Amino acid sequence: MSTAHDDKHGEGERRHDLGHGHGEAAGPVVLSVSDRHPRVRTIQVVRPRSEDSSFLAATAKGLGITLKHFARNFFLPMRKAQARSKAGAPTDDSWRNEIETVQYPEEKVTYPERFRGLHRLMLRDDGAVRCVACMCCPTVCPAHCITIIPEESENKGIEKRPAVFEIDELRCVVCGLCVEACPCDAIRMDTGEHARPVEDRADAIETKDSMMGRGIHSIAVQGGEGPDWRGHGVE
Amino acid sequence: MLVFQILDFPAVKWLFLVLALVMPLASLLTWAERRQSAMMQDRLGPNRANIGPIRLKGILHFVADALKMIFKEDFIPANVHKGLFALAPVLALAPVLIAFAIIPFGPTIYPHAITKVLDADALAAAAAGAQGAPNLADAIRMQILSIDFGLIYYFAVLTLANYGGTIAGWASYNKWALLGGLRSSSQMMSYEVAMGMSLMPMFLAYATLEPGALVLAQGSQPWNWGVIGWGQFAASGAGAGAVPGLFGALAMMGAFVLFFTAAIAETKRAPFDIPEGEPEIIGYFVEYSGIRWGMFFLAEFIEIVFISAVIATVFFGGWQVPFLDADGFRIGGELGLTGVSGGHVFAMKHGWVVALQFLAFGGKVVLLSMLQLLIRWTLPRFRADQLMNLGWKLLLPLALVNIMVTALIKLISLSMGS
Description:
The structure holds two protein chains of two kinds.
Chain A: H1 2-21, E1 29-33, E2 41-44, H2 55-74, H3 76-85, E3 120-121, H4 136-140, E4 146-152, E5 160-168, H5 177-181, E6 187-188, E7 205-206, H6 208-213
Chain B: H1 2-7, H2 10-40, H3 61-71, H4 82-99, H5 120-128, H6 150-171, H7 175-206, H8 211-218, H9 230-233, H10 242-266, H11 290-315, E1 324-325, E2 328-331, E3 334-336, E4 339-341, E5 344-347, H12 350-376, H13 384-417
Antiparallel strand pairs in B: 1-2, 2-5, 3-4
Helix pairs in contact in B: 2-11, 2-12, 3-11, 4-6, 4-11, 6-7, 7-10, 7-13, 10-11, 10-13, 11-12
């Protein structure tokens, strides 16, 4: 990425140099300079007279630039292969990615750390769902896409758990408020996955089982003092 | 033999030319244009179309495109003139295919002498009917129509393609299509004048209008090809003969630039794509869809191939390979009326010579087509008034001046040589 940027920069400078070659005064004529910032200034633009501007010369120059880009990108796979065969070269080609196109199914860009993807339900140490069906997330959800039907838990210390926990991914606006609202780190959106394409609307509804399938054990201590999942309160 | 007579039949040669060179190249250009433009702009372009694991860098995109266009709904808007609406794509496509008749796409093949070396002695022996001489019967001339007015035929036939765009615009019952059709006809008529005039110096220099004879007259030495034309101007007899040769070369290069510019304008592609203006100003085929639009599209790409073929023939020696004559590679030698003779020859069999010359013509056409794509994706579009100014106030006067200058140089070189 940086390579491509540097090259474009160099091209611009060369154009600048060409302008000097025609015997123009060094630098543009500065008419006034802003007192607030020295680089904000009014300059006199020198345009070629119509007799001096030739379609032919400009065309040839433009063709040279496009041909250079074409040739460079044409021989890029070859140069990449050469560079890869050298010892100590990085295994991925990201260091010399002059073509910015990402070949999607084969290559994927890494999402930012806080990317909000598909929901998942976190698990207790015994593998049971962490959610206590407190109804905070359906209450805060602006799209009303969360459906929870609570039931009584056998564990009297937990009291409630969701019998049904469904999220309609077609209605979800991926705002992340449910994650913020959750008092016991039971729902997260940090899977890094998109909502899958489906052929039937019913298939877009994530169920408790499917979301628990993506879940992991949370380190947050539930129902007492201890570190939360963000790591706050850890001594 | 009957099989060679069938092969020499014009329709067979036309089929061969269209199926083996024109259609594959035009189809590939539809893919190559997108891929080349993408690489010029630091993108990848279409590279994913595949049949199973066969991907070929996306070349199969043109198959996918063709299938898509064929199977799309053939939509005809209400109120269109149905007959003319159907006729317009044919009128755009047919003239280009017909115009290929004059292009000499290969040397004359002597099918019985493919394993022989055709040097001057062998030809003389064959002419005398001597024993053991190569059999030159059943010659196949790789040019469909060999007529004296050769390139005039090209101008006349391609003018008909003008009707395709204009009628498409008129028959579509759409104001914007009509305006596009008018832009198309005004542009094509303006540039046809400059195009014809810019080729005149070639006719003066080589004293022929027939493309086949033009290729033979250019010979195998690159400095005698049309874009330089050294041998046509440099008087060999006089000591100062190089001076008219130098000025003649300048005039020829000028003719090449003028003709190339006008020819690109005739194909209605950027920077002269005012008639179409695909992205924003609506062109004459706005009401067309499916394979009817595909025919306009294909006609445009066949025109690119045709323009490349004409330029290769007139300016770059047609099927001539540098320094390769009928009897093999040659160093030195003099350009005469029947080609280059003398010098040191590395003999080659007739079959190999013919194969190389076919390849040379194909290669020249491909390179010139790629150059046109390069130009199309480099230059921004002209404004309508700039277009007319360029055509009438710059190209046409320059072409006229070039004719007179070339005639003068030719006259000087002739008087010096005598």
